[in-house]
Amino acid sequence: MFHALVAVKQVPDTTNIRIDPETGNLVREGVPAIFNPYDAHALAAAVEWKRKLGGKVTVVSMGPPSFIVTLREAIEMGADEAYLVSDRKFAGADTLATSYVLAETIRRLNEQDPVDMIFFGKQAIDGDTAQVGPGVATRLDLPILTYAVKIRDIDLEARKAIVERKTERWVEVVELPLPVMLTCDKEIAEIPFAPLPDLIRSLKYDPEVWTMAGPVEFDRGQVGVRGSPTIVYKMGTPELPEPGEKINTREVGVEAAVREALAKAESAGVLSAVLGGAK
């Protein structure tokens, strides 16, 4: 039986993100929270293979009690179990502290029911660091494949999987031993409509909540602010560039507009720089 574990996160909708000009902090008040999109596609892939092979999908998240909404969405998408690791002592965690808490949580869940594959989204859209998944894999001493875009096969008997990953130049096809971790791009799977039984179940589902009190014994020195050496020096909104000059082709005609644009580019040194580099 296939057992997949998926780490998910609730994030602010980055289309509505604002920066406080005085403090440099993200303004979260009034900003809707959403299921991190890359995590949602990773979960869709895990559920797809669960239905092909039989088994279950476990979802885990670290965050405040409001994350329960996202975990219920995960159940709606086809996950079987969900765990929220939540405690005020975890507040202020950077990627190092977050990877520690998630790794210890996954280690405990694996002891209860061995995991074949661990899925992360390639990154969270609020931080965009792409560090937590690899950090967890390092702590658990697991092989990891980043930027996964397609799972070709999972062979539980042979204990291997064949996965495609995207690089800047091409797509690689990699054979991996199980257990393995994948960090997934959106191409890994389409998010399907939820079946009615999963939708009904999600409305009543309460995930199990784990805290500093147990069942995992977390090192207090490695969680929250105490376990986070990262210092954010400054945050801000980049200045918008000055708009470029417009040449109206209706007024001067296309040919004249092109000649004028080329003349302006040449006088600014842009044209010579471009043509000089084309050798």
List keywords for this structure.
279 residues; alpha/beta; Rossmann fold; 2 domains; 9-stranded mixed beta sheet; two-stranded antiparallel sheet; 32% helix
Strand content: 15-25%
Q: Oligomerization state of this entry? A: single chain
The count of strands amounts to 13
* SSE series: EEEEEHEHEHEHEEEEHEHHH
Overall 3D form:
globular
Query: Main sheet?
Result: 9 strands, mixed
Spatial order of strands in the largest sheet: 11-10-9-12-8-1-6-7-13
Q: What is the first-to-last residue Cα distance? A: 59 Å
CATH topology assignment of the largest domain: Rossmann fold
> Superfamily at the CATH H level of the largest domain?
HUPs
Proportion of residues in helical segments: 25-40%
Q: Please work out how many helical segments DSSP would assign.
A: 8
Q: Any guess at the CATH architecture of the largest domain?
A: 3-Layer(aba) Sandwich
Task: Please state the average pLDDT score.
Answer: 89
Uncertain stretches of 5 or more adjacent residues: none
| The CATH C-level class name of the largest domain | Alpha Beta
Radius of gyration over all CA atoms, rounded: 24 Å
Number of domains: 2
Structural class: alpha/beta
